[in-house]
Amino acid sequence: MVVERKPEWIRARFPGGERFLEVKRLLREQGLHSVCEEARCPNIGECFNAGTATFMILGDVCTRACGFCDVTSGRPTGLDLLEPLRLAATVERLGLDYAVITSVNRDDLPDGGASIFASCIRAIRQRSPQTEVEVLIPDFEGNADALRTVVEARPVVLNHNTETVPRLYRRVRPKGVYTRSLELLRRVKEIDPAMTTKSGIMVGLGETFEEVLETMADLREHDCDLLTVGQYLRPSPKHLPVDRYWHPDEFAALTEEGRRLGFRHVEAGPLVRSSYHAGEQSRAAPNVSAT
Prior knowledge:
Layout: H1 18-29, E1 33-34, H2 35-38, H3 44-49, E2 54-57, E3 61-62, E4 72-73, H4 83-94, E5 98-103, H5 114-127, E6 132-136, H6 144-151, E7 157-159, H7 169-172, H8 178-191, E8 196-203, H9 209-221, E9 226-231, H10 248-261, E10 265-269, H11 278-284
Parallel strand pairs: 2-5, 3-4, 5-6, 6-7, 7-8, 8-9, 9-10
Antiparallel strand pairs: 1-2
């Protein structure tokens, strides 16, 4: 079954307003990218008008081509070693209390870009000591040293998205490995038992409710603390079609199941994305440290 018409509960604010334009202008001035724009996030208007953005580092060309993602795929060129400094300056100018950093996949780099993640965290901490930094990282192809590089830079939350249920990986995330993503989350706790971990799941790609619950249970078995669950929205006709739109009541049921499983906090809803209300999610979870 392929469903294209959106139900009434899929509604997002049309992007616009003075603050929205200010954030876009500042990103352009500093030569920075945001996943909000690159991935056509439906919450871009709300977040930009609140003066927040999820920064996307390591360029805007991804070495992978996932079936759900609108970020350009291809062969990246070069590495911008000054990007952490420009990012830190932008965070300072925006006066952010909470910043989220993600990236394209850079499988062309020996460490997958982990050193740039770490440099960004340290640069922000130096210029804006009050800003908490969350990172949403790729799997670094299972490189344990690359993961350690990021963890030892001490973000307040380390996020790595599972994205979908294992049965759909070959179609949705062909270069990803479900068990590798789970292992990454487990290794974070080995390196720093106090670090808060987070993951995200999309629904609407053909998974069943029971499969989502099983994936949530797998995440808890690997000591994942925070969870986001949101509806997949097809960014263009070339991407995977929406199988169905989950009802808000189903998201509410997933929230309750997540609490029962022991997640510190669950954010589930039609327009929820990995970084949506990230600061609120982090502060809603006990024992989260920003040191």
